[in-house]
Amino acid sequence: MKLNWSEIKLLLVLSLPLVAGQLAQTGMGVVDTMMAGSVSKLDLAGVALGSAVWLPTFLFMSGVLLALTPRIAQAVGKQDRSAVKASVMQGIWLALLLTMLTLMILLSSSWWMRFFTLEAAVYEIAVDYIHALAWGALPALLFQVVRFFHEAHGLTKITMVLSLIGFLLNIPLNVLFVYGYGPIPALGGVGCGFATSLVYLTMALVGWWLYWAHPRYQAYRQEAKLWRLPEWLGISQLLRVGVPIGWAILFEVGLFTFIAFLVTPLGTDALAAHQVAISFTALIFMLPLSLAMALTIRVGQLTGAGESAQVRMAIASALWISVALGALVALLTWLFAQEIVALYTQDSQVMLIAVTLLWMAALYQISDALQVACAGALRGIGDTTSVMWVTLVSYWVIGLPVGFYLCYGAWSTDSGVWLGITGFWLSFVIGLSLAAIGLGWRVYTQFFRSSAAVVTR
Questions:
Q1: pLDDT for 280
Q2: pLDDT (0 to 100) of residue 138
Q3: Residues of the chain with pLDDT under 50
Q4: What is the reported pTM?
Q5: Which of these, 124, 238, 328, 331, is most buried using a 10 Å CB contact count?
Q6: How many domains does the chain have?
């Protein structure tokens, strides 16, 4: 795979606004973690558990909607405006259906979270935080629909602007609800949930306003039929591509968040340290993820235009960038782990554990960057099922059992502790490395094993 500097430049132009946008969105979670940690260790642990419910749920639903990106991108490459419009409208209906499922999961948390070993105060904060986030479920998913529409057209700067608006708004809203002001009481970590809901409402309103106002989309607005009733064939096609994406994202992100429940027997310090490490690694993951999203757009548009040779060039360029980016992030994380943790908490025991976890995180940065880039390439042609199966086996069939054993030294939490929470983070290295190998092989067989044209699904 040779370097192609023009393709690298094009990918960076597409991905840099996405980086800013993704960092801003993830930064909201970082602000939540920091402010909850400034209130108390219990608030930090409560937000950690609440995030362990909200984040995988939201990302799964967003992953299903992510099917819109390659679908719209290929229609844009074919200059099929009618197909673009139909995809957007069915995406709206799908978002409404997914919101109902999201609310069922979030609002039932007060029941099923009782089965975990939790301090009463941590349980109450986590449940109230989740219920506060439930108010933002619908605007959050409607925002994802319009976001993927903008990105499929290559207008990634719109996502950047919207995300920066959300990030900047999240800070004063967090201060308002966490610490209280005037008639608004101090809600602690729970206030972060209300702030996030209001932020997503604002981002959705501005994003859809741009859908109607941006001059690039004038041709869509000129169509006589602006609104479409649910078309179950179109929705089923989105589900066929999107559900495997959702599962693949859930298998990866859910592994990190689900472990928050598995380590509750280790105590509040381990749980708080896990949240600190998750918060930071989720932030830096936005760098390779943004590149992968740009690659999905690029592959989708080139596939729609029938440029299979250029598709391979784009993928090769993205993989080179991924290796360099992963190495740089790993080095910086290893060198500045203590300084990073100090931004989140001053609790000495939590800091000690969290620094060790960040050192473990540095070990998997190259593998993580490669696997997400390969997944992005495959999603560009609609090959989402293979991504789902590779991530399922790598993270849950192999990674999770290995991590549990490394943590407790046996298959039961009653047997004692071996490596503790560090064991789970070592298993992340194993799981992500296996995913990089599996998805890398799939990319090779789909794009590089022969010079045949890319198969569009």
A1: 87
A2: 95
A3: 224, 452-457
A4: 0.74
A5: 238
A6: 1
Which residue segment(s) compose the domain that 312 sits in? 5-448
Q: Is residue 454 part of a domain?
A: no
Could you write out the DSSP letters of every residue in 36-67? HHHH-HHHHHHHHHHHHHHHHHHHHHHHHHTT
Q: How far apart are CA 399 and CA 395, in angstroms?
A: 4
Tokens 């080139």 belong to: 302
Q: What pLDDT shows up at residue 452?
A: 46
At CA 65, angle to CA 430 and CA 222, rounded to 5? 150
Tokens representing residue 214 in the block: 């941006």
Q: In the block, which residue shows the tokens 């994802």?
A: 144
Residue 23 lies in a domain: yes
184 SS3 class? strand
pLDDT value of position 228: 67
Say if 139 falls within a structural domain. Answer: yes
pLDDT in tens, 256-275: 777 877 887 888 788 888 87
Would you state the structure tokens that stand for residue 219, as one six-digit string? 């041709």
Q: How far apart are alpha carbons 28 and 450 in whole angstroms? A: 44
Domain assignment of residue 444, yes or no: yes
The CA angle 249-253-257, to the nearest 5 degrees, is 150
Average pLDDT score over the chain: 84
CB 189 within 8 A of CB 49: no
DSSP 182: T
